[in-house]
Amino acid sequence: MSVQKETQNPAFYMLMVVLVVMSLGPIVLMLATSFKTNVDVYDSTVSSFFFTPTLANYETVLCNVLWYEPTHVDYCDPTFGRSLGNSIFVALVSTVLTLFMGCMAAYALVRFRFMGRDTVSMTTLLMRMVPPAVLLVPVFGIWTFQYRLDGTFTGIILVYTAMNLPFVIWILQSFIVQVPIQLEEAARMDGANPIQIFLLVVLPIIKPGLAAAAIFTFRIAWNEFLLGNALLDRNTRTVPVTIVNSITEYDINWGVIMATGMLLAIPPIIFTFVASRQIITGMTAGAVKG
Description:
This protein has helices at about 10-35, 40, 55-60, 80-110, 115-130, 130-145, 155-175, 180-190, 195-205, 205-225, 225-230, 240-245, 255-275, 275-285. The protein is mostly helical. The longest helix is centred in the N-terminal third of the chain and has 33 residues, at about 80-110. About 30% of the residues are buried.
């Protein structure tokens, strides 16, 4: 008796091709444009698909951090290079601060018994549902007129930490609740104090959850534009804000903008690859209770 092999519908493969093109098309176009000169960028003929790649746009973006002086750059504008450093600093500090506060808050909500614990836990999740646009006007007013934190790294880091903290608390609760209480009791019997129990027993077990929360927090802080555009000044702007502010009705250097966009995508990719094993394990552990 022969077994007839099932054939996949050709429409399925066509759909997959369309989805791949839609996903990778903008990335490929941005990468190609980043290696073009202004003449090639504005060339609308068929010959625009065939061009000589150049690193001039990347040299323009990174002119203030390169070990040599690009010959085509008459004046080195440090705006883009400075904004890359600002984005890395803001994203890393806000991620570390959010994880530091979030893991302790999640541990307290899971292990300690106090009045209103369930209400606090649910409120943290509801706060995450508030869109950043709703916070723009009140945060801008408080940061500008009361605390004078506008245009500072401290102000934007505190905003990103407060914005991401509810979700981090919520996701880490699902990991901490799976830590056997017997492990903490055994450590307590061996003479460990509460801080040692938390640092040496709980944190190593929930490391996958910390990695997943770190990726989420880092990406939000790295790509956020609305609050950054309102609260940051010329010297503290991040890359998304700098890219938008560089687009004017008189001059748009698409090559430099696309090169900056490609550089903007590199740190999150590296961050994701470094923690890829922990992310996969963390998402699986967080989705399956056992």
